[in-house]
Write a structure and sequence with these properties.
The protein is α/β, with parallel strands linked by helices and 443 residues long. The chain contains 17 helices and 16 strands.
């Protein structure tokens, strides 16, 4: 489905750099800019061997690692560009989230200012929408407890400080994004596979805002044209977790509730054995994930109207529904509901630790000695958990004399293990107890 209609508020936008232009959202931003007659420089670490057909005329590639490049490298790329879009930030679970969200943006802004750019757009997170809202009852806790959220706030502040009066900086506050980018596996594949299996579905209280990838791209380009200097929330719908599970399923199914007390227990247990870079697991699972992370849809439409974007509430919801369908089709194709063989796996509780569910939970043992690590390691059940714990020990103690033992243990596990489970398909503990002990939350 096409991006929202918008009228140009500034006709001087001719050449734009998109950092992360080959990514999920960046791809759509590049296409939107091309449709509006702009030339685009895609900044990426790995330029594609074969660019999309529609890119061959007015797209050039700059092979740069945005997280490592110096300001003078960006200055050279940005010469003769009016502005740039930063679509390569770090998400929860990414160990380099601060470097990507703050350090890289500082260097990019310095290079852009020296090159004479006058506008920038940063793709941010909707966590700042809540964290900076005085009326949000858990906003303060978001800022104080989660370093990822703090990095997003610092990102905008640093960009605007360097930009000063010379460069406007619009920050798009993005919730869960649905849609399809050619050649990329959907971020939501594990969620959709589960929602369309015959496994029982469980979800806690709470929910999230969501938006189509085309709308995010349209708002980003409109903000660039208008030289916006604001935070711009973008959403097309609010859904409880139960509603969302049925939105990404081809058939409507019963979603069993997970009590808040169980979510707090899960947070405590996972907080003991694991860490997700950028998030405090206990607080997030126990207090944040069970909230209605809903955005004011009327306010979102008002912000878009200020940028010259025109669409009705019905058009926005139609775009959201089309994005859901496209995402499902990209994951399942013509597949239908599959039966689960008897005894194959357990239930899965629907949880998420960020906007990019492809980022898996990394089990990082909080230990002071190898002996303590061994004790905790023996309590892990699945091969996935054991592999994650072993890898985490290697990261935490690269010079340990036990690394050889760790490598041997990894070698024995990896041939038969699957990748670490995504946060969207994690937390099987409650599910196992529900099956074996007859939890009262399953009627």
């Amino acid at each position: 489905m096409a991006s929202p209609r918008h009228e140009s508020k500034s006709s001087d936008l001719k050449k734009v750099a998109v950092i992360g232009g080959t990514g999920f959202i960046g791809y759509h931003i590049v296409n939107d800019l091309l449709r509006q007659g702009c030339s685009v420089t895609v900044v990426t670490r790995n330029p594609p061997e074969e660019a999309p057909a529609e890119w061959k005329k007015n797209v050039t590639f700059a092979k740069i690692n945005a997280q490592k490049a110096k300001p003078e490298e960006f200055k050279a790329v940005f010469t003769d560009h009016q502005g740039f879009v930063y679509a390569a930030g770090g998400d929860p679970g990414d160990e380099e989230f601060h470097e990507k969200n703050v350090d890289a943006v500082e260097r990019i802004m310095q290079g852009a200012r020296e090159a004479g750019c006058d506008r920038a757009v940063i793709l941010g997170s909707y966590y700042t929408y809540f964290a900076c809202n005085e009326e949000c009852k858990f906003g303060g806790e978001l800022r104080q407890s989660h370093t990822y959220v703090a990095s997003r706030i610092a990102q905008a502040a640093a960009a605007r400080k360097i930009g000063g009066d010379a460069i406007t900086v619009a920050v798009i506050e993005i919730p869960w994004v649905f849609g399809v980018t050619p050649g990329r596996v959907s971020l939501w594949k594990k969620l959709i596979d589960w929602a369309n299996s015959s496994k029982p579905l469980l979800a806690p209280a709470g929910g999230t805002a969501a938006v189509s990838v085309e709308t995010v791209a349209g708002v980003a380009v409109a903000a660039l044209r208008a030289r916006s200097n604001k935070n711009i929330p973008v959403a097309e719908g609010n859904f409880t977790w139960q509603q969302l599970l049925n939105k990404v399923g081809r058939t409507s199914r019963t979603v069993y509730p997970v009590p808040s007390s169980i979510m707090r227990a899960i947070g405590t247990i996972y907080g003991t054995f694991s860490a997700v870079p950028g998030l405090e697991v206990r607080h997030f699972l126990g207090k944040v994930f069970t909230q209605n992370l809903f955005m004011d849809l009327k306010q979102c439409r008002q912000k878009e109207e200020e940028l010259g974007i025109s669409h009705t509430e019905g058009e926005a919801m139609a775009r959201m529904e089309a994005a859901f369908k496209a995402t499902i089709d990209s994951c399942l194709g013509s597949a239908t509901l599959k039966a689960t063989p008897a005894g194959a796996g357990t239930l899965t509780v629907f949880t998420s630790l960020g906007t990019r569910p492809s980022m898996g939970i990394k089990l990082i043992p909080r230990v002071d000695s190898y002996t303590e690590f061994q004790k905790k390691y023996t309590t892990l059940q699945s091969a996935d958990e054991k592999i994650a714990a072993l890898r985490s020990y290697k990261l935490q103690y690269p010079g340990s004399p036990h690394i050889r033992d760790i490598n041997q243990m990894l070698l024995s596990l990896q041939p038969v293990a699957t990748p670490v489970a995504s946060p969207l398909a994690a937390v099987e503990m409650y599910s196992k107890s529900a099956l074996t002990m007859g939890s009262t939350s399953l009627p």
